[in-house]
Amino acid sequence: NELISGTVKRFVRGANLIIDLGKVEALMPMKEYPKTEKYHIGDKVLALLQSVNDTENGGAEVILSRSSPEFVRQLMIQEVPEISDGTVVIEKIVRDPGYRCKLAIRSLDIKVDPVGACVGKRGMRVKNVMRELLNEKIDIIPASNDPVELLQNALSPIEIRKISVNEDEDVISIVVDDDDFAAVLGKRGMNARLNGDLIGRSEERRVG
What pTM was computed for the model? Predict the structure, then answer.
């Protein structure tokens, strides 16, 4: 779970990357970096040290990731002092790598605004993280133990006209204005799917 930088050395088995870390080489499988990212030999890469696995010949295989939600967490820790010192806590991260990421955060100090701390002055902190993610959108959302309140926070400033909760089927249904429907759903349903993941419910689309 540390951030580590290296250089693209070669491609293996298609688009899997071998990254030169200096003393060792690491593997970044194609599934571990967003489809939106394209690499060439010699490119510099910052990634998450995801795992070190023993190999049959007694060596070690180092696996890197840029798709993991933990990669975003470590970038935020690096950029936001209030997260690194434990004042602001990232409770959950859901992500469609390369496109959108949502962070549910809370502050352990009532004097510290968690969203403001993560966004930074003139948005610089979150912009620095987005730049490393090649402009992946980041939504920073006040955390809540109540899934309905968390969903409202995630959809703000869109107004939810009606909410119904079916505990038996573990379903939360919402009604929004027609003008807001496309934004709630998102491109290819991404926003609804990520919000469903954020509150612990899978997304189901109904129009009517």
Answer: 0.89
